Amino acid sequence: MAIKPPALQSGDTIGLVTPGSPLDANIINARIQTLMNMGFNIAYGRYMYSFDGIVSAPAPQRAEDIMTMFQNPQVKLILATRGGTGVQTLLPFLDYDIIRQNPKIISGYSDITVLLNTLYQSSDLITFHSLMLGDFRPDTPTYNFNQFFEATSTGVSPRVIQNPPNFPQVSLVPGNVTAPIIGGNMTSLVNTLGTPYEIDTKGKILFLEEVNSPTTMIYRYLAQLQMAGKFQDCLGIIMGECTNCLVSWGTTYQQLINQFLVPLRKPLMINLSTGHGLYKATIPIGATVNLNTTENRLTVVEPTVSFV
After folding, report:
1. How high is the pLDDT of residue 179?
2. Domains contained in the chain, CATH given
3. Among residues 264, 260, 280, which one has the least CA distance to residue 272?
């Protein structure tokens, strides 16, 4: 069973890091103010404000920030400022044994996907495909905050993950499986293939979402995951939104799902609101969930944080 990090409570300290691309300091500071208004204290990553071209800082320094937060006993949540690109380059510089011994809530999405799944696979830590610093705005939908805090601050179990009203999640292939959930952004996961950090889907429920990719690119991603055996190994599949994905050659995201995934006859749910869309369900990477596509329901069957 995966390690549950200690729960987040009002007055706790949040450690901010920039593991991938840089974020404008003015945006960072505005979002920090929102966190402080919510009653949290802030620990600042040394390289949080840095710019080094495509990434915020060289990989060893970005990894150093993450390790510093894991080893800081005051920090209860490690929050990525944004995703972007380049997160996979810091993975060789992390100490996964130290992380395992100092479990913390860590949250993000987009390119943070590779970090979340690697920490689960290498440190056995439940991580959270959920909000980043950039999402802590006054106009963020209440749904997003409710999802985040229910998963990270309460012991609610079981917890049904359900889209907001008028955004139906749809089950295309009926079935009922219970297993740990993994996944996230398709670009990031495909980038792990052939590396020591390749995502392991065996016996898992695989969740995927994408942003700003034309369907020609989605075709490539799905084909690559298929040829790598990732769909064959998993027990069920959840497809999130493909946000701002342009239709290429008259072929839609839905048509690609029908082509690649429906014929597998594994439990398949689509349109889950999470990741890059307006509404963001919190997906606890590594936690056990029940995917019941006969009843069109996704349930986290265990608490995802501890109160010890």
Report:
1. 98
2. 13-153 (3.40.50.10740), 159-300 (3.50.30.60)
3. 280
> In this structure, are residues 272 and 161 in contact, taking their beta carbons and an 8 Å threshold?
yes
Helix (H) and strand (E) counts in the chain: 9, 14
- pLDDT at residue 308, rounded to an integer: 78
Beta strands in the chain (DSSP E): 13-17, 41-44, 75-80, 105-108, 127-129, 159-161, 170-173, 176-185, 205-211, 236-243, 268-272, 283-285, 288-292, 297-300
Question: Which of the residues 56, 107, 110, 123 is marked catalytic?
Answer: 110
Give the containing element (helix H, strand E) for 118: helix 113-123
Q: What is the DSSP string of 202-267?
A: TTSEEEEEEES--HHHHHHHHHHHHHTTHHHH-SEEEEEEEETPPPBTTB-HHHHHHHHTGGG-S-
C-alpha 104/C-alpha 115 separation (Å) is: 13
Phi then psi dihedrals of residue 217, to 5 deg: -75, -40
Residue 209 among the catalytic residues: yes
Question: Could you confirm whether 276 is annotated as catalytic?
Answer: yes
* Residue in 64, 107, 210, 276 annotated catalytic: 276
- Does residue 3 contact residue 124 with C-beta atoms inside 8 Å? yes
pLDDT for the residue 1:
82
Report the chain (308 residues): mean pLDDT per 10 consecutive residues.
Answer: 96 98 97 96 98 97 98 98 97 98 98 98 98 95 97 95 94 98 97 97 98 96 98 98 94 97 98 94 98 98 94
Catalytic residue chosen out of the listed positions 21, 64, 107, 209: 209
Residue partners of 182: CB distance under 8 A and separation at least 6: 117, 120, 199, 200, 201, 204, 205, 206, 207, 285, 286
The size of the chain, in residues, is 308
State the CB neighbour count (10 A cutoff) for residue 240.
29
| 130 noted as active-site residue | no
Strand, helix or coil at 116?
helix
